[in-house]
Amino acid sequence: MVTTHNLGFPRIGKHRELKFALEKYWSNTISQDELLQTASILRKQHWQNQNKLDWVPVGDFSFYDQVLDMSFLLGNVPKRAENLSDNEIDNYFRVARGRAFVNESNRTCIQASEMTKWFDTNYHYIVPEFSQETNFTLQAQRLITQIRQAQEQGVKVKPVIIGPVTYLWLGKSKDKTNKLDLLDSLVKVYVQLFDELTKLGIEWVQVDEPILVTELELDWQVAFKKTYDTLANKSIKLLLASYFGTLQDNLSLACGLPIDGLHIDAINAKYEVQLVIDSLPDDKVLSLGVVNGRNIWKTDLSATLLWLESIHQQLQDRLWLAPSCSLLHVPVDLDSEQELDSDIKLWLGFAVQKLEELSLLAQALNQGQASITKEIASNINAINGRKYSPLVHNDKVKERIAKVKDGLGNRQSNYKDRAKLQSEKFNLPLYPTTTIGSFPQTLEIRQARRDYKLGKLSVEKYTQLMRSEIRNCVQVQEDLGLDVLVHGEPERNDMVEYFGQQLSGYAFSQFGWVQSYGSRCVKPPIIFGDISRPKSMTLDWITYAQSLTNKPMKGMLTGPVTMLNWSFVRDDQPRAATCLQLSLAIRDEVLDLEKSNINIIQIDEAALREGLPLRKSQWQTYLDWAIKAYRISANGVSNETQIHTHMCYSEFNDIIGSIAQMDADVITIETSRSDMELLDIFDEFDYPNEIGPGVYDIHSPNIPSVDSMVELMQKAEKRIPARRLWVNPDCGLKTRHWDEVNLALTNMVLASQQLRKN
Ligand code: GLN
Ligand code: ZN
């Protein structure tokens, strides 16, 4: 018999119940009991959703983040947040979110822990902190309570935890402590935990070690060996789970560990499956992640079964089936969707549907395909419908792609020659000032967009309202004395959704929310077909804005790589191919803007870095096609047109060569929070073009002083000649208030004036 299980279920609830409960609790609108109640109902519901599986994950539920839960379970709580109150949940939220200074008498402010991306997903975890004083102690009450609840509900419980090696790897040493020095004491706590779990009658525990899909240094490989030798436990069975990629060099390490079962990502590492079967001792279970946990497409059941048949024959009862990774990264339930095109809806599956697929696959293997004839037939229908659908395929797009030549992404001249022409044309002062695009999105703006979407506001009225916002925004910038203006982006709810909604090939769900961090969720658009641009997407707004001023108006676009990285992407062609289609659509927009005398155009690539593969050895391939796509979108313009790009981070030391290859005339980046330290790379790397290192941290309500900004720019000047520097904020201003923005930008303009004087 084939066994089915799940690695993790999304915890936010199909209508984001957890998000709303958390936010109400944080704002004191509900009590802690009410919050706990919501959590308990959600868990019950989710176990119910998984009740056809042989093993159900428990411990995957979290109020904020599963890595932070692990830190609490291991008693590894940052000192600053220990014993703040007797209330464990409040302490937990304080580590996650920090606490602002409230008043002198009783409240100290607490710094929130650092947050970073969970492997190559858009989920962010709270980074564990380590130091010489780190001392682990088992605090398993939360997990034990959840296990008991599940057992009472008759669930076949398989606790899910993060393995010790990955846990250490994910954290950060706050002093010079070598993280691996903590391994022995950490593993002891895991031994205690397994003893506790055994007492609860647990048979299997899933231990996540996703770092097995990354390139591991020798000491980390040794750590695996050492750890699992110690953990090899007679009374509880360990299922070691790797996901998000291939094992490659770690394959024999993983197969040789004294564990009871191994889970691998059979979507990304399909070609490794036979190798693993051959390497894994034959008393061990092999769990194959055959349903994609990172995407929203229906599984091709008959193709998967065809492939699984021989594997089943080899493994028999040792074969387990699961999604490729936790379903945390997909929305909860497709059945909630009422507005998706009915054809497209047929092609999709969210978490609930993915588990149904899993059960069907197991049933077919266990009882023969005849037992699911009907389901297979309708699955084939959906799969073929998608494969041949005119919604997906657009011959014009394919013809255009086939004609793309290498030179398409080249500017007419090199930067030096362009810079001369541009400086004559724009005649900008030294240290020109600009912003990144958006201005505060007030309640009125949001309301207007909402009403328009609901049909409560006519196109005329809406246009009028947006134009008056643009007028106001341009006037403010004129008054402030900024050099290159923007229209303020009032018409955009989101930098990807705004463009996606105007492109063919994109679909939008109503409830397709995925957790990004804490109570924050995102709803990635779905790229289902060939991308084309029926008509201009920004021209009317930008040209209107330009008509209001004699200063240059910067046209604002989102770049192809960011469009791709923040969407659910089709799986029937390589990502690079989809990206190229996007780049042609954006290119058309760029050229339309240029034709209408918009001579400065910014193409945001906020998410370029996020697409980097987990293995460094694969970075260059990604960068090659991503940079090519960006270049095609941006570089079709004449020498006099100035291209800007913006990135929301500045850790690009390791990709600086590729950034330079984008050949943007100006690049604006986030740097203020790092005190310009991030510009150190420019000591070694001679970045040829212009750069605007953000001097105003827009993530904070603080108003930066003139002096602080001058100082930051002076630091920048040490690495980049003044004539190639711009003065601008870190990122868009949409989350800030007008009064803050006015003050901060006033100072920013003063800073630039002072720099010019010097
Ligand atoms: N132009 C966008 C804005 O200003 C850029 C946002 C971003 O980089 N995330 O809002
Ligand atoms: Zn940004």
Task: Give structural notes.
With 758 residues, this protein is an alpha/beta fold. 41% of the residues lie in helices and 12% in strands. It contains 27 helices and 21 strands. Strands 1-12-11-10-9-8-6-2 form an eight-stranded parallel β-sheet. Strands 17-18-19-20-21 form a five-stranded parallel β-sheet. It has a two-stranded antiparallel sheet with strand order 3-4. Strand 14 and strand 15 form a beta hairpin. Helix 17 runs antiparallel to helix 18, helix 22 (575-595) runs parallel beside helix 23 (619-634) and helix 26 (706-717) crosses helix 27 (738-757). The longest helix is centred in the middle third of the chain and has 22 residues, at 459-480. The chain is globular. The relative contact order is 0.08. The mean pLDDT is 96. Glutamine binds at residues 436-438, 489, 495, 556, 604, 606, 646, 648, 731-732, 734.
By secondary-structure content and strand pairing, the structural class works out as: alpha/beta
Average per-residue pLDDT, rounded, comes to 96
Poorly predicted tracts of residues: none
The number of E-state strands comes to 21
Largest sheet: 8 strands, parallel
User: Could you give the distance between the termini?
Assistant: 78 Å
Name the beta content range.
5-15%
Ligand set: glutamine, zinc ion
**Morphology:** globular
Oligomerization state? single chain
What is the strand and helix layout of this fold?
Blueprint (H helix, E strand, L loop, with lengths): L2 E2 L12 H10 L5 H18 L6 E3 L7 H8 L14 H10 L17 E3 L6 E3 L2 E2 L10 H12 L4 E6 L1 H7 L1 E2 L9 H17 L4 E5 L9 H14 L5 E5 L9 H6 L4 E4 L8 H7 L5 E7 L9 H15 L3 E5 L18 H5 L4 H17 L5 H16 L6 H8 L12 H12 L16 H11 L5 H22 L16 H4 L3 E4 L6 E4 L2 E3 L3 E7 L6 H9 L6 E5 L1 H6 L9 H21 L4 E5 L14 H16 L7 E6 L8 H7 L3 E4 L11 H4 L5 E4 L12 H12 L20 H20 L1
Parallel strand pairs: 1-12, 2-6, 5-7, 6-8, 8-9, 9-10, 10-11, 11-12, 17-18, 18-19, 19-20, 20-21
Antiparallel strand pairs: 3-4, 13-16, 14-15
The chain binds glutamine (GLN) and zinc ion (ZN).
